[in-house]
């Protein structure tokens, strides 16, 4: 287990380390010393913050002096992309599905609308970053129960009516 840190996975499987409110991604392996994680804003903001994690997942060294505010990220282990048999890709978050719609820009990302927007007048939506790796925002007040999907052997999902 991490001490004070938490590993989370983004919708398409990229692992991040969350530590004291900031997100870090794997930077490089340290010889026999574990792994170095660098702040996600390393490139965009030249942030020098990092965390060293030993091989047994203990944070042994860190520089948490960020030159920016903590990101307002929302990570969910329950988020994943699913492919429907008709070729549509949906984002499933906590059992609900969202589709990209026309790809409306929304505060630094793309807005994905609840799939039941038209049938249930549901206003729930999520905002996914442009690289589709981070959920930036989650509005989860659904007006309905989650849809039921069944995985097929090929990894496709079939909606059950
Ligand atoms: Zn930083
Ligand atoms: Zn909904």
Automatic annotation (TrEMBL):
One of its GO terms (molecular function) is zinc ion binding. Keywords: Metal-binding, Zinc, Zinc-finger. Signal peptide: none annotated. Residues 8-68, 86-144 form the FLYWCH-type domain. This is FLYWCH-type domain-containing protein.
């Amino acid at each position: 287990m991490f001490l004070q840190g938490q590993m989370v996975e983004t919708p398409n499987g990229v692992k991040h380390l969350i530590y004291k409110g900031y997100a870090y991604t794997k930077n490089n392996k340290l010889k026999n010393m574990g792994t170095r994680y660098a702040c996600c804003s390393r490139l965009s903001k030249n942030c020098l913050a990092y965390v060293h994690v030993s091989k047994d997942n203990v944070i042994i060294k860190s520089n948490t002096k960020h030159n920016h505010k903590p990101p307002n990220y929302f990570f969910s282990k329950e988020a994943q992309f699913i492919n429907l048999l008709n070729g549509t890709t949906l984002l499933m978050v906590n059992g609900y599905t969202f589709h990209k719609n026309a790809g409306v820009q929304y505060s630094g990302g793309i807005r994905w609308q609840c799939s039941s927007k038209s049938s249930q007048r549901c206003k729930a939506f999520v905002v996914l970053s442009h690289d589709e790796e981070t959920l930036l925002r989650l509005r989860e007040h659904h007006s309905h129960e989650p849809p039921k999907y069944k995985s097929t052997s090929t990894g496709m999902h079939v909606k059950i009516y």
